[in-house]
Design a protein that fits this description.
With 215 residues, this protein is of the alpha+beta class. It has a single domain, classed as q2cbj1_9rhob like domain (Jelly Rolls), CATH 2.60.120.620. The protein is built from five helices and nine strands; from the N terminus they run αααβββαβββββαβ.
Length: 215
């Protein structure tokens, strides 16, 4: 979902960066990469902890290769809202979905039997770094206990051969008429690797508020 660029074209070079897309392909072990979404993750001063979760359970993608690049625009220490990961959690497949919006009582995924005895590990990073996590990696972000906004940008990449696995409503897929079983590609979900000859255009209706999540 080529969403952020629709509002702020200046971030297009980051979202479409061929070096990042190429790294994503290598890490996923695939030949081609499609953009799934880009997003600004600005956690304001006093922002609460992001509930531990797996990204991939929000979306109709099954267990197909998916990876996120988390790019801080400033140094991020624990008090700023650093990320934490549960090592090896990606090996356990799709666990129960977590409602990170807290419209319902979120599942306590850290106490899932599959993760018994595994502790989260926080990662402090410098501005301009890139940290990666797979779609099935259980992760979270600490609360922002500082008096400044934590500024981060993220780009999520998908195997170019990925297909829609469920028919639940997901705006970017429904906009393109992509049905269950069909390859995910279209306006707002362009191929990024191998690098296209012409940079893709953002959609006129990126649907920032609806997003691709299914909770």
């Amino acid at each position: 979902m080529y969403a952020t660029v629709g509002d702020e074209p200046a971030v297009a070079p980051l979202t479409l960066d061929p070096a990042l897309a190429g790294i994503a392909a290598q890490l996923m072990g695939v030949e081609g990469v499609t953009l799934w979404q880009d997003q600004a993750l600005y956690k304001e001063a006093g922002g609460r902890e992001t509930t531990p979760h797996q990204d991939q359970t929000f979306w109709p993608l099954g267990t197909q290769p998916l990876i996120s690049a988390w790019i801080p625009f400033q140094d991020v220490k624990l008090d700023d809202g650093a990320m934490a990961y549960v090592p090896g959690s990606h090996r356990h497949g799709r666990l129960k979905v977590v409602d990170i919006t807290h419209t319902t009582d979120p599942y306590d995924i850290l106490n899932d039997p599959a993760l018994a005895g595994i502790s989260r590990r926080y990662v402090e990073v410098e501005a301009g770094s890139v940290i990666w996590h797979g779609g099935l990696t259980v992760h979270m972000a600490a609360a922002n206990r500082t008096n400044r906004t934590r500024r981060v940008f993220t780009v999520v990449y998908l195997d170019a051969n990925a297909r829609r696995t469920q028919s639940w409503p997901v705006y970017p897929l429904d906009r393109e008429g992509i049905k269950k079983g069909e390859v995910i590609e279209g306006l707002g979900m362009p191929r990024l690797w191998p690098t296209p000859a012409v940079p893709p255009e953002p959609p006129a209706d990126p649907a920032n508020e609806t997003g691709p999540q299914h909770l």
